[in-house]
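Archive record
______________

***
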Amino acid sequence: QAQLVESGGGLVQAGDSLRLSCAASGRTFRERGMGWFRHAPGKEREFVAGINWSGTTYYSPSLKGRFTISRDAAKNTLYLQMNSLKPEDTAVYSCAASKSFVSSFSPGDYEYWGQGTQVTVSS
């Protein structure tokens, strides 16, 4: 059974960096688009970044420049490097595998989801 498991979250101070990982098992996702979403209390789930099977990347305009998405096909792992973190970045971050070879801004276009990892940024 396909499974996505996130890791790397934690409690950090404003200005710090974190690197999230999303390890896939049960099948390879190298031919799928992948994405990172976040969900903060009282807010709707928000697209953070996506990457196509080809390596083309997409970012939320408000986050571009601070966050970098990447993937290691050999390790079947997705990453999110987050720099210059702000308190408003506090959320549960989840990775997802698209239904197709491209990523998407819409959660409905994703087939597999991880459980999420908590990122808390203190001021």
Notes: The radius of gyration is 13 Å. The mean pLDDT is 95. The chain has no helices and eleven strands. The longest strand covers residues 18-25.
